[in-house]
From TrEMBL:
GO terms for molecular function: metal ion binding; methylmalonyl-CoA epimerase activity. InterPro entries: Glyas_Bleomycin-R_OHBP_Dase, MeMalonyl-CoA_epimerase, MMCE/EMCE_epimerase, VOC_core. Pfam families: Glyoxalase_4. Keywords: Cobalt, Isomerase, Metal-binding. The gene is mce. Belongs to the methylmalonyl-CoA epimerase family. SUPFAM superfamilies: Glyoxalase/Bleomycin resistance protein/Dihydroxybiphenyl dioxygenase. PROSITE patterns: VOC. This is methylmalonyl-CoA epimerase. Residues 4-134 form the VOC domain. It catalyses: (R)-methylmalonyl-CoA = (S)-methylmalonyl-CoA. Its EC number is 5.1.99.1. GO terms for biological process: L-methylmalonyl-CoA metabolic process.
Protein backbone atom coordinates (compact mmCIF):
# COMPACT_ATOMS: atom_id res chain seq x y z
CA UNK A 1 0.00 0.00 0.00
CA UNK A 2 2.82 2.46 0.84
CA UNK A 3 4.66 4.25 -1.92
CA UNK A 4 7.49 6.78 -1.68
CA UNK A 5 8.31 9.01 1.26
CA UNK A 6 6.76 12.28 0.08
CA UNK A 7 7.98 14.53 2.88
CA UNK A 8 9.11 14.88 6.46
CA UNK A 9 7.52 17.92 8.12
CA UNK A 10 9.22 20.15 10.68
CA UNK A 11 7.22 22.63 12.74
CA UNK A 12 9.28 25.80 13.18
CA UNK A 13 8.70 28.98 15.18
CA UNK A 14 10.12 31.28 12.46
CA UNK A 15 9.54 30.11 8.90
CA UNK A 16 11.64 32.78 7.20
CA UNK A 17 14.62 32.01 9.42
CA UNK A 18 14.27 28.26 8.89
CA UNK A 19 13.96 28.70 5.10
CA UNK A 20 17.13 30.82 5.07
CA UNK A 21 19.02 28.17 7.02
CA UNK A 22 18.14 25.58 4.40
CA UNK A 23 18.73 27.84 1.38
CA UNK A 24 21.69 29.98 2.45
CA UNK A 25 23.59 27.72 4.84
CA UNK A 26 22.75 24.31 3.40
CA UNK A 27 22.43 25.44 -0.23
CA UNK A 28 19.09 23.71 -0.77
CA UNK A 29 16.37 24.71 -3.20
CA UNK A 30 13.42 26.03 -1.23
CA UNK A 31 9.95 27.08 -2.42
CA UNK A 32 8.26 30.37 -1.74
CA UNK A 33 6.05 30.36 1.41
CA UNK A 34 2.56 29.04 0.67
CA UNK A 35 -0.32 29.98 3.00
CA UNK A 36 -2.83 27.15 3.50
CA UNK A 37 -5.65 28.71 5.55
CA UNK A 38 -7.76 25.55 5.34
CA UNK A 39 -4.96 23.68 7.11
CA UNK A 40 -3.92 26.47 9.50
CA UNK A 41 -0.30 26.55 8.34
CA UNK A 42 2.13 28.32 6.05
CA UNK A 43 4.54 25.93 4.34
CA UNK A 44 7.90 26.08 2.61
CA UNK A 45 9.18 22.98 0.81
CA UNK A 46 12.87 22.10 0.75
CA UNK A 47 13.52 20.06 -2.39
CA UNK A 48 15.90 17.11 -2.00
CA UNK A 49 16.94 14.54 -4.59
CA UNK A 50 14.94 11.75 -3.02
CA UNK A 51 12.22 13.50 -0.99
CA UNK A 52 11.16 16.85 0.49
CA UNK A 53 11.28 18.57 3.87
CA UNK A 54 8.15 20.56 4.69
CA UNK A 55 8.73 23.53 7.00
CA UNK A 56 5.53 24.51 8.84
CA UNK A 57 4.58 27.70 10.66
CA UNK A 58 1.19 28.26 12.35
CA UNK A 59 -1.39 30.33 10.44
CA UNK A 60 -4.50 31.67 12.16
CA UNK A 61 -6.06 31.13 15.55
CA UNK A 62 -6.90 27.44 15.19
CA UNK A 63 -3.66 26.10 13.79
CA UNK A 64 -3.23 22.34 14.37
CA UNK A 65 0.47 22.91 15.01
CA UNK A 66 0.03 25.60 17.71
CA UNK A 67 -0.14 23.13 20.61
CA UNK A 68 2.85 21.23 19.23
CA UNK A 69 4.96 24.42 19.09
CA UNK A 70 3.80 25.43 22.57
CA UNK A 71 5.20 22.10 23.81
CA UNK A 72 8.29 22.33 21.57
CA UNK A 73 9.06 26.07 21.32
CA UNK A 74 12.27 25.54 19.33
CA UNK A 75 10.36 23.42 16.80
CA UNK A 76 10.66 19.74 15.97
CA UNK A 77 9.67 16.89 13.69
CA UNK A 78 5.89 17.10 13.28
CA UNK A 79 4.81 14.42 10.78
CA UNK A 80 5.85 12.09 8.02
CA UNK A 81 4.02 11.75 4.70
CA UNK A 82 3.80 8.61 2.58
CA UNK A 83 2.43 8.38 -0.93
CA UNK A 84 -0.41 5.98 -1.69
CA UNK A 85 -2.06 5.16 -5.01
CA UNK A 86 -5.63 4.99 -3.64
CA UNK A 87 -6.21 7.20 -0.59
CA UNK A 88 -9.74 6.06 0.25
CA UNK A 89 -8.68 2.42 0.03
CA UNK A 90 -5.70 3.18 2.29
CA UNK A 91 -7.99 5.01 4.74
CA UNK A 92 -10.45 2.13 4.85
CA UNK A 93 -7.63 -0.31 5.44
CA UNK A 94 -6.26 1.80 8.31
CA UNK A 95 -9.70 2.15 9.89
CA UNK A 96 -10.29 -1.60 9.56
CA UNK A 97 -6.97 -2.06 11.36
CA UNK A 98 -8.16 0.12 14.26
CA UNK A 99 -6.44 3.42 13.41
CA UNK A 100 -8.15 6.81 13.81
CA UNK A 101 -8.32 9.08 10.78
CA UNK A 102 -8.26 12.73 11.86
CA UNK A 103 -10.93 15.29 11.03
CA UNK A 104 -14.13 14.07 9.39
CA UNK A 105 -12.30 11.19 7.74
CA UNK A 106 -12.67 12.64 4.26
CA UNK A 107 -9.62 13.62 2.17
CA UNK A 108 -8.69 17.31 1.89
CA UNK A 109 -6.53 18.89 -0.78
CA UNK A 110 -2.97 19.34 0.53
CA UNK A 111 -0.10 21.61 -0.38
CA UNK A 112 0.63 19.75 -3.63
CA UNK A 113 -2.97 19.98 -4.86
CA UNK A 114 -3.52 16.30 -4.14
CA UNK A 115 -5.85 14.58 -1.62
CA UNK A 116 -4.39 13.96 1.85
CA UNK A 117 -5.46 12.44 5.18
CA UNK A 118 -3.83 12.28 8.62
CA UNK A 119 -3.66 9.24 10.92
CA UNK A 120 -3.62 9.90 14.69
CA UNK A 121 -0.09 9.66 16.15
CA UNK A 122 -1.42 7.48 18.96
CA UNK A 123 -2.20 4.79 16.37
CA UNK A 124 1.17 5.16 14.57
CA UNK A 125 3.53 4.60 17.48
CA UNK A 126 3.82 8.30 18.35
CA UNK A 127 4.31 9.67 14.82
CA UNK A 128 1.61 11.78 13.16
CA UNK A 129 1.27 10.25 9.68
CA UNK A 130 -0.02 11.90 6.51
CA UNK A 131 -1.07 9.87 3.48
CA UNK A 132 -1.09 11.61 0.08
CA UNK A 133 -2.63 10.22 -3.07
CA UNK A 134 -0.19 10.40 -5.96
C1 LIG B 1 -2.15 19.19 4.42
C2 LIG B 1 -1.31 20.40 4.17
C3 LIG B 1 0.16 20.15 4.43
C4 LIG B 1 0.65 19.11 3.42
O1 LIG B 1 1.58 18.37 3.68
O2 LIG B 1 0.09 19.08 2.29
C5 LIG B 1 0.38 19.70 5.85
O3 LIG B 1 1.05 18.78 6.17
S1 LIG B 1 -0.47 20.63 7.07
C6 LIG B 1 0.10 19.95 8.60
C7 LIG B 1 -0.71 20.42 9.71
N1 LIG B 1 -1.94 19.67 9.82
C8 LIG B 1 -2.12 18.71 10.72
O4 LIG B 1 -1.25 18.41 11.53
C9 LIG B 1 -3.48 18.02 10.69
C10 LIG B 1 -3.54 16.82 11.60
N2 LIG B 1 -3.22 17.18 12.98
C11 LIG B 1 -4.17 17.26 13.94
O5 LIG B 1 -5.34 17.04 13.71
C12 LIG B 1 -3.69 17.63 15.32
O6 LIG B 1 -2.47 18.32 15.25
C13 LIG B 1 -3.52 16.40 16.26
C14 LIG B 1 -4.86 15.67 16.44
C15 LIG B 1 -2.45 15.43 15.76
C16 LIG B 1 -3.07 16.92 17.63
O7 LIG B 1 -4.05 17.82 18.03
P1 LIG B 1 -3.84 18.72 19.31
O8 LIG B 1 -2.50 19.31 19.20
O9 LIG B 1 -4.98 19.64 19.50
O10 LIG B 1 -3.96 17.67 20.45
P2 LIG B 1 -2.98 17.41 21.62
O11 LIG B 1 -1.92 18.44 21.75
O12 LIG B 1 -3.88 17.21 22.78
O13 LIG B 1 -2.32 16.06 21.20
C17 LIG B 1 -2.98 14.82 21.36
C18 LIG B 1 -1.90 13.76 21.52
O14 LIG B 1 -1.16 13.66 20.29
C19 LIG B 1 0.21 14.00 20.53
N3 LIG B 1 0.67 14.76 19.36
C20 LIG B 1 0.17 15.91 18.92
N4 LIG B 1 0.82 16.29 17.81
C21 LIG B 1 1.74 15.34 17.58
C22 LIG B 1 2.72 15.17 16.57
N5 LIG B 1 2.87 16.05 15.59
N6 LIG B 1 3.50 14.08 16.61
C23 LIG B 1 3.37 13.14 17.58
N7 LIG B 1 2.45 13.24 18.58
C24 LIG B 1 1.65 14.33 18.56
C25 LIG B 1 0.20 14.82 21.79
O15 LIG B 1 1.44 14.78 22.41
C26 LIG B 1 -0.88 14.13 22.58
O16 LIG B 1 -0.37 12.93 23.12
P3 LIG B 1 -0.78 12.43 24.56
O17 LIG B 1 -0.03 11.15 24.76
O18 LIG B 1 -2.28 12.26 24.53
O19 LIG B 1 -0.36 13.52 25.51
CO1 LIG C 1 2.55 17.47 5.34
Amino acid sequence: MLGRLNHVALAVPDLARAARRYSETLGATVSEPQALPEHGVTVVFVELDNTKVELLEPLGEASPIAAFLAKNPKGGMHHICYEVADLKAARDRMVAGGARVLGDGEPKIGAHGRPVLFIHPGDMFGTLTELEEV
